[in-house]
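Q: Fold this one first, please.
A: Sequence and structure below.
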Amino acid sequence: MNEHPFKILYLMTDPFGMGGVQSDLKALGPYFVSRGHEVVVACPSGDQVDVLTRGGVTHIPFSVHFRTPGQFGDQARKLRSLIERVQPTVLAPQSIRASWICHAAAKNLPLARVTTIHNIHSNMNALWAGVILNRASHLVIFESDHEHRRITRLGLSRRKTRVIPSGIDTETFYPDPEARQKMRAALPDLGPDDVVFGCVARLSEEKAHDNLLASYAVVRKSYPKTRLVLVGDGPLRGEIESRARELGIAPFVHFAGQQRNVREWLNLFDVFVLASTRESLPRAAREAMACGLPVIATRVGATREAVRDGENGFLVPPAQVDSFARAMIHLLFDPDLRVRMGRESRRMIDARFSQSTWLADNESVYKVAGSLAGRFSSREIGPRLLDPAVTPCS
């Protein structure tokens, strides 16, 4: 049993389905439970809640939606009631919006507020992020240097921050020759020499599947022994399927839909491709790297922290269809380069994105934060949590 257990209440604004934040909590929550801590996640229900509950995490359906000051006040009162019922030692909002309402609900309560910022897609939200987080949070964890630099430049005190890149579970994601053989045999009409480009991503606007399809259409003209596999689902699926038909590549694009056996699909791929116009530190790309794949991605957000151009893949400007296609063709015609880059991808995961380090660093922060709860006022917790001797910050 842990000598200094904490009780953490995570607050999310999105349903608990597939996504980067949800993937993080599916790893963190059960790990903390196994270490003797209590974990509660408050958010709208989703199709991945059962993964949490099987790991001993408590899920409480809770929705954060407000457009007016009156609605904000009502939501804050409901959250305050939830906090008083759960009695956490750490309040852990997972976004700017969640941080602000946590501040309104708990600013006078003697518990620590530790925000995690995964990504901030809206430039308008980013402009206010520093001001809000300075006031709303005792400590802010960033998952990437990119978002950390961005928000500290916009006013967030560096002293209140720590960068802890999320880790990848290499016991779940790894090169799997048996899975590769099985998946290649199952994909209709796939030849033994066909090269498979693949993407795992939600079918939504920021993932720019339309650009990816256009790039693949260029590739097909040069090298017909190829396939494109898209794993994921989302609001734009109909439009993306229609676009594939318009480009004349529909017979060669496989829409796999949402899948739970992601490792097996990744091992089907020869190259992982991600054409996003907005990203933070893309988890799917790093899971592909753990499976030993080279990655072609757009140079957006924190993607360059995972993909080193020319080392484990290629980075190209967003929305540059021809440039992306050239990178695909480069790897298409050089299988030895694919192998070398894939090995470098796996090495980088082991060296820079260790899940054990990520889990331990988060636990260390929350243990310190939890130890202060109830012993000091909300105003006193902040300075004590930021003491470098207690919680070293990046």
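Q: Good. Now the second chain.
A: Here it is, same layout.
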Amino acid sequence: MDGYLGVIVIVAVVALLAAGGLLLYFRPGRKAAPPVKPPEKPVLPEQEERPSGVAGEEGGGATTTLPPPVKPAEPAVVAPEIEVPPPSAGRMVRLRSRLARSQSALGRGLLELLSRDRLDDDVWDEVEEKLITADVGVAPTRVIVDDLRTKVKVLGSRTPEELRGLLREELLAQINPDLDRTLRIQKHGERPAVALVVGVNGTGKTTTTGKLARSLVGDGKKVVLGAADTFRAAAADQLQTWGERVGADVVRGPEGGDPASVAFDAVARGIEEKVDVVIVDTAGRLHTKTGLMDELGKVKRVIEKKATVDEVLLVLDATTGQNGMRQAQVFAEVVNITGIALTKLDGTAKGGIVISVQRELGVPVKLAGLGEGPDDLAPFDPEVFVDAILGE
């Protein structure tokens, strides 16, 4: 009995304690603890800008779809700007100051000698030496000195103006202003004129070809260039550059190819496009190699199967003096030279080569290179040249 009574007491105590705890928990005025908010997930910039309502690939949730990468724009190929060269008329007058800087020393030296109080044999020997040193040539020098001695003796008086006039007259007579220096570049009906440019490497042959094309374009003519110097890759590239600058087509062949074939194709292109002039740049290796000179003759013969070769221009470096004369003679034996282009005439005091080369070949100097600029090739003017030698 006592055991049941103990159990009852324990149960009662436990029940009271439980009831007290429940009363404390549910008493009035107690506030519930605020719910804990889950940490916010950072929003990426792409998610902020993405429009709502787009289902993701997994679970139907919203995801960010990146746009495809944009390919960088390829740089546009810019065609070279076509230049409009100035006309060739009056160029030598405009370039006269460059010529005078190199040639005036000859004129001043001659006038100083002729102005001495006494013109004895020693003075005339000095005059002769100065002319020969300037590459005038022995025979023309003797003619000039003999004529001057006679005229000075007849005149009696020797004022600076008279001496300058006498010397100018003699130099002009030897240069021969009456020679026809016109470039033969007139079309033959539907066929273009053909100019062949020959000369030794290093004389400025390819540059002269490019400058001539530029000059003709400036005069309103349509030009095709033939890069027949196939043994020097740089020559074809150089000519290509000249042609692109003025809008002239350039016909070229493989390196080491047949020069005559390139020349033939250039003339054919000129006929097809109805241009005014075809200018063919030829190989300029050593003139002492007979086989190479024969090849030059072949180029001319192949061209003549298609058209007439109207002009054969020999390019000579004025600074080479008498060596240039020997080159001229060898080329003249292979092709019928019709004119001479003297380059670097502003870079030497030996302008007398104009007289000697004309006398030896019997053909006129038609073009003069008077600088490194693209428009520094000028039609040769004898009077401007002599006046540059003598100064104002």
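Q: Anything worth noting on the second one?
A: The mean pLDDT is 82.
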